[in-house]
Amino acid sequence: MIVQVKDPVIEVHDLTVSYDRKPVLWDIDLTLPGNSLIGIIGPNGAGKSTLIKAIMGLIPVSSGYAKIYDQELKAVRQQVSYVPQRESVDWDFPASVYDVVLMGRYGKMGLFKRPVKADKDAAMDALTKVGMQAYANRQISQLSGGQQQRVFLARALAQDADIYFMDEPFAGVDIATENAIIELLRTMRDNGKTIIVVHHDLQSAVEYFDWTVLLNMRLVGSGPTAEVLNQELLEKTYGGKLTVLTKVGELLRKKEFPARENPAKATKWKR
Amino acid sequence: MDAFWIILTASLAATCCSLLGCYLILRQMAMVGDAISHAVLPGIVIAYLFTGSLDSPLILLGAGLFGVLTTFLIEFFHRKIRVQADAAIGVTFTWLFAIGIILISLFAGQVDLDQDCVLYGEIAYVPLNRWITESGYDLGPTTIWTLGSVTILILLFIGIGYKELFLTTFDAGFAAAIGISTSLWYYLLMSAVSLTTVAAFESVGAILVVALIVAPPVTAYLLTDNFKVMLGLSVLVGVVASAGGYFLAVMLNGSIAAAIAVVAGLLCGLAFLFSPTQGIFRKRSTLAEPVDMQLQKQ
Description:
The complex is a heterodimer of chains A (271) and B (298).
Chain A: E1 10-19, E2 22-32, E3 37-41, H1 48-55, E4 63-68, H2 73-76, E5 80-83, H3 97-102, H4 106-109, H5 117-129, H6 145-158, E6 163-167, H7 175-190, E7 194-199, H8 202-208, E8 211-216, E9 218-224, H9 225-228, H10 231-238, H11 241-254
Parallel strand pairs in A: 3-7, 3-8, 5-6, 6-7
Antiparallel strand pairs in A: 1-2, 1-4, 8-9
Chain B: H1 2-26, H2 30-39, H3 41-51, H4 57-80, H5 85-106, H6 115-120, E1 130-132, E2 138-141, H7 142-160, H8 162-170, H9 172-177, H10 182-223, H11 227-252, H12 256-274, H13 291-297
Helix pairs in contact in B: 1-2, 1-7, 1-10, 1-11, 2-4, 2-5, 2-10, 3-4, 3-5, 4-5, 4-10, 7-10, 10-11, 10-12, 11-12
């Protein structure tokens, strides 16, 4: 089931991406609505990260195109932000938390320019939003996984974009950070932003996302989460592997053994 | 006075090499600096055959082109042919360096260059080759002028492109996403490395260039967590190694370039032992206190 939207913020047309002549994404036709929290779900190697990288123009595509706000990517680059996978950088790099968050302002500053007060304020403001203001002068190698993820999020926030692409922001973070991040993403959505999240946990996907994209090299489904996350489409996405998953899920629910902490109890970041 | 000129030459070479080396080691590409410093040789020989002089700017151009060609070839082997990065480096630079050696031996009669000079440099002769104007005014050794101009260029390059170099080195994916061309800055950096290598090779030799690209930045990396401080410290270490190496060489009556590399290596070893954050003999009290505890105190 693939629902196409009117006036999409992101439009992907006939997109095919291959590494070494081996296609990893095949003929993706996709439209995504604005002002929503969107999850991209699929098994390992389904091309989830590849899809967002291709939309942002970070990797060459074999055919097709992606448009953002009905324009070429170059024209709207400043409105798009990116939170890469945590493991993609060297956390022993000689930089402080503040240095990294300030990078979010580089695109707006341009060549030759040094950060002015507005940039510095934006960086500190973003750090406050993720509850890391006390860590501004910390060297990044001293951070835990959850704190690293918050720093990356703060860097994207400092950019003050309209569309945010996030690659596995919940991977390897503690439950408090996960709840705090999703709380922040919901606030951002309520303020009119569009957030596209690569995600691998099916159970939390149901409660996190307004819109879900199911991907396994081909586009399996795209639509409102409640309509798309059904047994038939999930089996198409994951193949036989899913039966085990659902069984485990049902078992846990029957025993009323909470698999996840109640989100209402979650610690919230101070704003 | 000769001592002053020699130390100044080595210090200028050390400044360029250390600054660029900071970026190379953080990109895990220190050996690309090694490769470029050798692979520019055919460019130098060819430019020399055309101009007949080692002081011509054409030498810088010829060698610079070969430096960039080296990085292109390494990238090509690594990305397109899918050879491991270190193997790609090894194949590319040995091949180009060997071509340079063959060119030198073929044109031995016409080229005032030899393999020893290329590898070890002749820094002791720096004060002899002077720039004297037509009116007979002595402007000092020519090498100082070439290396001095290159140092100013490198300082300008890092000053202007500081943000972009910092970001593309730390997180190329994010840089590309916000519209900073990672390949442009990569090739600019590699061109700067080529330029530095050529300017430095005549006086300090290819081996010392490699030592100066790696040892001072590594020393600085062990001593600080701040990138700007790391840049400054690496220059300081390079200059101290230059002066220390000169006096060591005078004391032992040995090769100056080799002595500088030895002192740079010793400084690196000292940093390894006594670094406040990563050293073997670090003090317990320098371990960072958790922020939560700091907050509680307030």
